[in-house]
Please model this.
Amino acid sequence: MDATPGLDDLDLKIVAALQIDGRRSFSNLGEELGVPASSIRYRAKRLQDEGILQVVGIANPLAIGFDLLAIVGVRTSPGTARDVCAALSAMHESSYVVMTSGRFDVLVEVIARDIADMTDVLQNKIGSVPGVLSTESFFVLEVAKLAYGWGVPAIEGLAADSSAPGTPTAD
Amino acid sequence: MDATPGLDDLDLKIVAALQIDGRRSFSNLGEELGVPASSIRYRAKRLQDEGILQVVGIANPLAIGFDLLAIVGVRTSPGTARDVCAALSAMHESSYVVMTSGRFDVLVEVIARDIADMTDVLQNKIGSVPGVLSTESFFVLEVAKLAYGWGVPAIEGLAADSSAPGTPTAD
DNA sequence: AATGAAATTTAAACCAT
DNA sequence: ATGGTTTAAATTTCATT
Model:
């Protein structure tokens, strides 16, 4: 599902609006954009169906008992990167999986409750995915920026949390 | 900002449900959880007001005209990592900035419209931040998973509607 | 804090263009 | 793909415990 060459201006405005408030009513948005609500709904559904947009709740992991975040660089044997991505994506401990060029073939963000949990993921789970040759972990000490909206001005940061994040905000 | 003392079981179920489908109706969720819709609403509002939860739209950047995504590993001179993070966070081309331990002191996700844009960011902008010693770029070839729902593997009896984006994958 | 119930707004399905 | 119409559903507000 390769996406979508062309999103028009209205699509982008809908995306931008929902990036700011994912529960905004389509009627309300339609009024602002001067388009009927049914059109907004049609577009929004299509965007979601095509995987371009998703509306989700984002919880501050630190507020719900997840204290460890790490980025893991993975090297894979030739030709397996995509399968490795799929396997890593299926793990509920991963929140971000991308295939890359460079020293690593895959980068994964892993979130865990504690050291034991993280160790298990790193050692047993990721290590046992076929095609994985090696891993290198980068523990996240502080989150400085977490922007979910691309191309939109600003979104309030993920809350506040005492411990780590400096100031998670969009620019 | 301080700790979130207590999220009870119901709070966590609400968070979990919204992580799966941010637009799910509170009535529908209330039915499933055996709680009145008004209670769900009350809780959800509180969670949002306290910054524990936010419902947002997330777009696949590659689908909305930002064709280049890269993760950049940055090494910094001792003691400057936090300042470097701040400087990188201020760039609108960055969408994710974290301070890490390991080979890199800082990891940044950079999003750009084209090669020229990316080159400018890499060479001129990041390169000129005081404290930056070196950078190593990982270009994102494919986005396999973009999930902002942490820690909700499966709560029994919590079913998303058929159409809901279960484990959102974008590519 | 949590619930219930009414009035209002919104969404989903359908259909015509 | 759009815009309108209708019906069912959801949200908001306010009252109640």
Observations:
- The first helix of chain A runs from residue 9 to 20.
- Chain A has two domains: 9-49, 61-139.
- Confidence is low (pLDDT under 50) at residues 152-171 of chain A.
- The CA atoms of residues 22 and 55 of chain A lie 6 Å apart.
